[in-house]
Amino acid sequence: MSDLLTSMDASTLDGTTISLSTGSALLYALVAGVLGVVIALTYMKTGKVSKHFARTLIVLPILVCVVMLAVNGNLGASVAVLGAFSLVRFRSLQGSSREIGFIFFAMTVGITCSIGHVVFAILITAIVCGIHFLLQKIHFGESKTREKELKITIPENLDYTGIFDDLFENYTTSHQLMAVKTTNMGSMYDLTYYVEMEEEVEKKFIDEIRCRNGNLTVLLGRKDYNPLEVL
Q1: By three-state DSSP, how is residue 106 classified?
Q2: What does the alpha-carbon distance between residue 94 and residue 159 come to, in Å, rounded to a whole number?
Q3: Interval 99-123: pLDDT, tens
Q4: Largest CA distance in the chain
Q5: Sign of torsion, CA 88 5 23 20?
């Protein structure tokens, strides 16, 4: 038992197994955690943020590092860990490509620390985080227009099929009617569009819509789900 508490197995790149002290293993896990904090901060500073996902990015490298150290060279432990992970059911929605990339980033750092290449893990973290900050600064891949959700309420006596077509042509780069719903006991229609437009013309666009729908409700906001961002 004392041997188990003082040492554990770790592997080198050539596949050989070496004895690793508990202190060294804890050091590797600690480094993985520190690098996880750096990864989480990069995630928070370079795009949309999920609080729970940012916290997960801190813990994930540590867990990956510990699992790699624990199962290395032990077939029984490997099977047990595989069985435990197979019982996990992910009930959340699919992550965006950005979040999946950060998950692989955190796992890579954890694996690199587990084989003892701490300096290499630090360098990789610095390089990849630097790339993220650079791409964020130069707005790489971003478009000046954004797809947004537009909801317009009109009275039932208006024909919605072409009433706003000229406004869409003048103010948007693309538009698509997604849904039509009756409301207020059938006396009104709620129209839902997906539109792309520049922010500078949004107010004027909304004002002209209000002139046509009798100053009823007009809602222009962020589109909650973008299929292009999901793998």
Answers
A1: helix
A2: 38
A3: 889 999 999 999 899 888 999 999 9
A4: 84
A5: negative
